[in-house]
Amino acid sequence: GAHRGVKDWSLRLARPDDASAMPGIERAAAVAFAGEASIDPIAVRAEADYARLIRRGHCLVAHVGETMAGFLAAEPFSRELHIWEMDVDPRFQRRGIGAGLVRAA
Q1: Which side of the chain, N or C, has fewer Cβ within a 10 Å radius?
Q2: Are 62 and 7 in contact (CB under 8 A)?
Q3: Residue 89: how many CB atoms within 10 A of its CB?
Q4: What is the C-alpha to C-alpha distance for residues 50 and 54, in angstroms, rounded to an integer?
Q5: d(Cα 16, Cα 96) in Å, to the nearest integer?
Q6: What is the enclosing helix (H) or strand (E) of 23?
Q7: With a cut of 50, which residues of the chain have pLDDT below it?
Q8: pTM as predicted
Q9: How far, CA to CA in Å, does 18 sit from each of 5, 36, 57, 65?
Q10: How far is CA 88 from CA 8, 49, 56, 66, in A?
Q11: What gap in Å lies between CA 36 and CA 78, rounded to an integer?
């Protein structure tokens, strides 16, 4: 549905120093979905994996204030953009952040 009022989060391209926060958000999101049999909460990407993807220039981060609330890690393959991972911290879900990340990608 349409969101009314001021958006309380911001979106930007990921920078190399953002990689350190990404595994923790991925882990928190995985725990929130622990009931889903298809998701392995242990299989979290390493900071170095995220740093490599960020260097490709197609990763986005969302912030609520100074806190990273979510991210989208993607990589171009020929003429398509492959989304490897998209997570929103459970504390910041239900604000349209995930949809905003996908739209921006």
Answers
A1: N
A2: no
A3: 21
A4: 6
A5: 25
A6: helix 22-32
A7: 1-2, 4-5
A8: 0.84
A9: 28, 27, 13, 15
A10: 14, 18, 21, 15
A11: 32
